[in-house]
Each structure stands twice: as C-alpha cells, then as structure tokens.
Fold this sequence. Notes:
It is a single chain. The chain is mainly alpha-helical. The chain has helices at 2-22, 24-53. It is built from 2 helices and no strands. It is flat. It starts with a helix and ends with a helix.
Amino acid sequence: MAQAKKVALYAVVVFVLYTIVNSPARAADLVQVGFEGISSAAQGVGQFMTELVN
C-alpha cells in the first residue's frame, strides 16, 4: 500500500511539472484559481466564526 502511494505521488509530481513546462500561463491560472478558492474558504470560515460569537 505504501508503495502505491509513492507511485501515485510521483505520477502527480510528474504531471504537475509537465503542465508547468508545457503551458506555464495555464498553470499560473490554475494556481491563482486555487489560491482564490482557499482565500474564499478562509473568508467564509471567518465570517461564520464572527456570526457565531455575535
């Protein structure tokens, strides 16, 4: 099982590197979308906590 996880991790890393090398603009767009999603989620949690305290 541990070896399958290693193989899957290596496959993901190779895919990410291939995507960055092959299409850097698209990779940058995907990273930006990811960070916007994380920011939005954190903002939602903060708003929830604020409402919970009030």
